[in-house]
Specification:
Helix content is 40%, strand content 21%. With 638 residues, the protein is α+β, with helices and mostly antiparallel strands. The strands form five sheets. It has an eight-stranded mixed β-sheet with strand order 5-4-8-2-1-11-14-13. The structure holds ligand BES and zinc ion (ZN). The site of zinc ion (ZN) has 4 residues, from helix 6 and helix 7. Ligand BES binds next to strand 19 and helix 6.
């Protein structure tokens, strides 16, 4: 068996995209809900980059390979001849559990049996393979839900989540964000279910013979594999604007359209900031069942979101602003490997807050930055101050990049960009962003792309450029561990109000001034800042203060999941037994890791056995990723 190694450009991939690169993918997929399988036939066009004709090494983790063939098309592209190829599945990797068991395809059969065709390859530099695959229960990028796990409880449901390196658990692929390809996808599913792909719908019809809904999608903008996305279920659609709409399970569409009504505005503000149009044409949102482990995922043309965003008051629309921003920072200009994940997320948080500042006022930007900074500090403490994952640009070695998932790339990245923005001025910064998007769209980059545009502008426009460039100190920002030593000033009037009220509770003031009256009207972010202050000072909170908080603010009755989970963290710390039924209900109806991870971790601290008993009963409600992270905590023991 040939020895293979991690790719130097992206150590999370075994594929040899430096020798041969995937350009176009056509997939014909169907689902078997009884067996919980996705079955597909893919035709992939590759371009050969090396002088020799290489083996094709693809990432793979979980699917069964049915066949691999070499495709010869006749001149008119009408007829195909298929030559079976030999392949191996490499299972002897040190890191096989996290990075998978790559597929190595040899072209020897072509060389031996049709040497003419083989010789042509060195000139044409392109080749086409046809691969048939079936997913298995080990495919962690795809989740099948039983009908009981859906909103109407009538039909089963399926969705995928490929970021960071789960595309390889759907089908064999060069699973690196360095590689961008265009896609055409044909989906077939029995009526009345809908099967969507993250692309633009080109054709849709009911095949009378099979009673299947057939839909053809296209993604003409080259995308990295982590943006491949499928979903199937009983879905309904509502329009928000000419180009925006919402897909939900049947019964939720109206509420969702209202909750996400600002999508169009967000897009327009982003277009203005970047001075670059929304290139993806259509923007749809998809509300998933609650087991979806993230708040949102910027799949092309189809942002996936958790149903927890349906708070009834648009209070979590920042997530929509975030995902929309990704269609420039992330989906057009893409991080080239997971070490540079902050180039996606830090820039996107920066944009998210710019959009919220335009839509909700500058005060909100600062408040979000404060809430974000609180989350950053909490995460760094959880990871350990000395953890590699507290670096803005960490080394994942052979680990799954998802294992290092935290707010570090988001918030440290954001703070770095704000620091630069303050240094060179808002207008200059914006100009850099605009040039950066224009220059690097459709490409995959590391941080040097932005650095180059930034330094170009500094040299061209600013006085004493060398001094400014030195002051930026990239190495420190990229590789410093722990809490950032540079502190931005995010002071805010609303923060002071929140902290004042929290102090009043801590000091058990009878008269909590006028602030208490306005609590109900506070934006969620102010309430979060308030709760954060309490969590920071939890050692000062006794039973009586907890009672006061509960009676006067009724936090358990808040509808917003962000507020709820923070309240439960406090309740668990204070061992408030009467909240346990609410916490159970919360954990049974939320799958977003951001909430369930800290709540479980706090519950484990409080009462390991009680938490374990509940988790064992309910864990299959969760996505494999969330289940693995929480299980890991239990496995560490009491
Ligand atoms: N792209 C991410 C989600 C993601 C990251 C999935 C890494 C898998 C691996 C998405 O854009 C995101 O950042 N979501 C956040 C939204 C928040 C920052 C507003 C989330 O889900 O919490
Ligand atoms: Zn993001």
């Amino acid at each position: 068996m040939s020895k293979i190694t991690q790719n130097k450009e992206d150590i999370s991939s075994y594929s040899n995209f430096d020798e041969i690169i995937q350009k176009e993918v056509f997939i014909d997929v169907s689902l078997d809900f009884d067996k919980k399988q996705m079955l597909g036939t893919m035709e992939v066009k590759y371009e050969i980059l090396s002088s020799e004709i290489p083996n094709v090494i693809l990432d793979l983790k979980g699917p069964e390979i049915v066949s691999v063939e070499y495709v010869i098309k006749n001149e008119k592209n009408e007829e195909k001849t298929m030559i079976p190829l030999t392949y191996e599945i490499y299972s002897e990797n040190v890191y096989k559990d996290s990075l998978g068991t790559p597929l190595i395809i040899s072209l020897d059969n072509v060389k031996k049996n049709i040497p003419d065709e083989y010789n042509k390859l060195s000139k044409s530099k392109t080749l086409m393979l046809c691969i048939k695959f079936i997913t298995t229960e080990n495919c962690t990028g795809i989740q099948f839900l039983t009908k009981e796990q859906t909103y109407t409880k009538k039909y089963p449901f399926m969705f995928t989540q490929c970021e960071a390196i789960q595309c390889r658990s759907l089908f064999p692929v060069q699973d690196s964000p360095s590689v961008k390809s265009i896609y055409k996808v044909k989906t077939s599913i029995p009526s009345p279910l809908t099967f969507l792909f993250g692309g633009i719908k080109k054709e849709s019809y009911l095949d009378n013979k099979s009673n299947q809904n057939v839909t053809i999608f296209e993604q003409k903008i080259p995308i990295p594999s982590y943006l491949v996305a499928f979903v199937a279920g009983e879905l309904e659609y509502g329009k928000i604007s000419e180009r925006c709409g919402v897909w939900t399970e049947v019964g939720l569409c109206k509420i969702a359209c209202n909750e996400f009504k600002d999508a169009e505005k967000y897009i327009q503000i982003a277009e203005e900031y970047f001075n670059h149009p929304y290139e993806w044409e259509i923007y749809n949102l998809l509300v998933l069942p609650f087991s979806f482990p993230y708040g949102g995922m910027e799949n092309p043309n189809l942002t996936f979101v958790t149903p927890a965003l349906l708070a009834g008051d648009c209070s979590m629309s920042n997530v929509i602003g975030h995902e929309i921003s990704h269609y420039w920072t992330g989906n057009l200009v893409t991080n080239k490997n997971w070490k540079n994940f902050w180039v996606n997320e830090g820039f996107t948080i920066f944009m998210e807050r710019k959009l919220d500042s335009a839509l909700l006022g500058e005060e909100m930007e600062n408040l979000e930055a404060i809430v974000g900074n609180n989350e950053l500090i909490a995460d760094i403490k959880l990871l350990g101050l000395d953890s590699e994952y507290t670096k803005l640009s960490p080394d994942f070695g052979g680990n799954d990049p998802d294992d290092g998932f935290s707010t570090v790339p988001y918030e440290k990245g954001y703070q770095f960009l704000i620091f630069i923005e303050k240094l060179i001025g808002k207008d200059n910064f914006r100009e850099v962003m605009q040039k950066y998007i224009k220059k690097y769209r459709y490409k995959s980059v590391d941080h040097t792309a932005f650095k180059e545009v930034l330094e170009g502008l500094i040299n061209e426009k600013l006085k004493d450029p060398k001094k400014i460039i030195d002051e930026i100190n990239w190495d420190k920002w990229l590789y410093e561990k722990g809490i950032p030593s540079y502190k931005n000033d995010f002071s805010s009037k609303l923060l002071k109000e929140a902290e004042k009220l929290a102090e009043d509770f801590l000091q058990e003031k009878e008269d909590k001034s006028s602030v208490l009256k306005v609590f109900k009207e506070w934006h969620t972010n102010v309430k979060l800042a308030f709760l954060n202050y309490l969590l920071d000072n939890k050692n000062k909170i006794d039973e009586k203060i907890m009672k006061n908080l509960k009676n006067e603010l009724n936090l358990a009755e808040e509808y917003n999941s962000e507020i709820k989970y923070m309240w439960y963290l406090l309740a668990l710390d204070k061992k408030v037994e009467e909240e346990i039924p609410n916490i159970k209900k919360f954990l049974e109806t939320h799958g977003r890791l951001k909430y369930v991870r800290p709540v479980y971790f706090a519950w484990i601290e409080k009462d390991y056995n009680q938490a374990k008993e509940f988790f064992d009963k309910t864990k299959y409600l969760y996505h494999a990723f969330a289940r693995r992270i929480i299980q890991g905590k239990f496995d560490k023991g009491k």
